[in-house]
Amino acid sequence: MTPLHAESRLRRAGAARAAAFLAVLAVLPFVFGQHWQVNLLVIAVMYAGLASAWNLLGGYAGYPALGHGAFFGLGAYAMAIGAGHLGAGAGYRPFLLVPLIALGTAVVVAPIARVLLRTRAVAFAVLSITVMFMVQTLAYNIRSLTGGSQGLAVPIAPFDAATFERPYYYAMAVLLVVTVGVCWVVRTSKLGLALNAVRDDEDRARGLGVQTEAVKLLAFVLSAGLTAAFGAVWAYYISYIVPGFAFDPLLSLVAVLMAFLGGRTTLWGPVVGAVLVGPAQQYFAYRFGASQLYLIAYAALFLLVIYLLPDGVIPSASRHLDRLRAAYRSHATRRDQPDQVPMEPVLPRGGRG
User: Fold this and answer.
1) Backbone phi, then psi, for 114, in 5-degree steps?
2) Do the bridges between strand 240-241 and strand 152-153 make them parallel or antiparallel, or are there none, so unpaired?
3) Among 19, 55, 16, which residue's Cα sits nearest to residue 183?
4) What is the pLDDT of residues 267-281, one digit of tens each?
5) Rounded Cα distance, 183 and 188, in Å
6) Which helix (H) or strand (E) holds 179?
7) Which residue in 213, 218, 279, 312 has the most C-beta neighbors within 10 A?
8) Cα separation of 121 and 128, whole Å?
9) Within a domain: residue 353?
10) Alpha-carbon span 29 to 217, nearest angstrom
11) Tell me, what's the pLDDT at 4?
């Protein structure tokens, strides 16, 4: 098989996976049509998108960001202010604010990102989550804008009660498709190669001519903007937000857990992780939410993932499939080889006596 033919097969396989992914997203609300089921789908799709957005920075660039809840909350409050205070109204019109909110968040976050990206590893993780708590504190104290601890109400959309959740589901699904598409473009471009070089050895990448500051900043603002877009749709969906829930550190940790479980350096890993962790997240919150024991359940789940599948589900499954293929090829090669007829040893002249 020629390299060109192999590349075309890979493209066809990727197109088939993308088509199947779109088809599944489109029909899920019709297969699971109960209100509580569609609500779970909204949350699962949101988390898949948040994990994929985090993966741009935490997976491809290798920067352990723990403060993405700040960008989610910024998007949520931007939607509440835009739809409630600035007269964007209800219905489908607030959805038109989502791209503007994503772009505005990326612009606002860029100067902060330049400062944070001067650090690495543990220092970056600590500073990123510190920024989230700082923004949360501002939301509590700037009462004239955010409502303080009383929060902000978002106009309730006049959607049909029988299918009320579907517009929000499809809005989340569109954002998920966009996020996965952005991740695919990044992975298959020079930007992806540069981010991988930064993840492997940033100093060496800089020495080889990679513009490390620029590529890290671009990955950061893309990740922040996409995260804010999901926060905006979420705020419109629940119709009321307070700082404690909009800027939730647990949201960031769950997104990280999903990315790690599925495979944080892969394209589909965060989506797979969301499918696996989403139901567990809802179960823990429902079963242990009143006693806060669900936080211990999250921690135990995270430790199990890191211990049993340090590379994630998709990389581990790929390695297992590669071993099976190698074993099958080896068996087929031995089977196709003709039996060797043993030859009579050649003895030196006079050796037969």
Assistant:
1) -60, -35
2) antiparallel
3) 55
4) 999 999 998 887 777
5) 9
6) helix 166-187
7) 312
8) 11
9) no
10) 37
11) 39
Helices (H), 32-165: 35-55, 69-80, 97-116, 121-141, 143-146
Token pair 């060496």 is found at 204
Contacts of 155 by beta carbon, 8 Å cutoff, 6+ apart: 83, 84, 89, 90, 94, 239
Spatial distance between the Cα atoms of 290 and 132, rounded to a whole number of angstroms: 24
d(CA 71, CA 73): 5
Grade residue 310 by pLDDT with cuts at 50, 70 and 90: confident
Please, which residues have CB within 8 angstroms of residue 276's CB and are 6 or more apart in sequence? 258, 261, 262, 313
Encode pLDDT of 99-135 as tens digits.
Answer: 999 999 999 999 999 999 999 989 999 999 999 999 9
Q: Which conformational region is residue 209 in: left (phi greater than 0), alpha (psi within -120 to 50 degrees), or beta?
A: left
Domain of residue 189 covers: 31-331
All residues at 6 or more sequence positions from 3 whose CB lies less than 8 Å from its CB, including other chains = none
Asked whether residue 23 is assigned to any structural domain, the reply reads: no
Least confident of 99-108, 134-143, 280-289, 318-327: 280-289
How many CB atoms are closer than 10 A to CB 299? 12
Q: Is residue 164 part of a domain?
A: yes
Residue 270 lies in a domain: yes
Note the pTM of the prediction, 2 decimals. Answer: 0.86
**pLDDT confidence of residue 336:** 65
Q: Does the pLDDT of residue 5 top 70, yes or no? A: no
pLDDT tens profile 241-268: 999 989 988 888 889 889 988 888 899 9
Question: What residue type is 309 in one-letter code?
Answer: L
DSSP code per residue over 77-88 = HHHHIIIIIS--
Q: Are 124 and 67 in contact (CB under 8 A)?
A: no
Number of domains in the chain: 1
Identify which of 282, 41, 30 has the alpha carbon closest to the alpha carbon of residue 162. 30
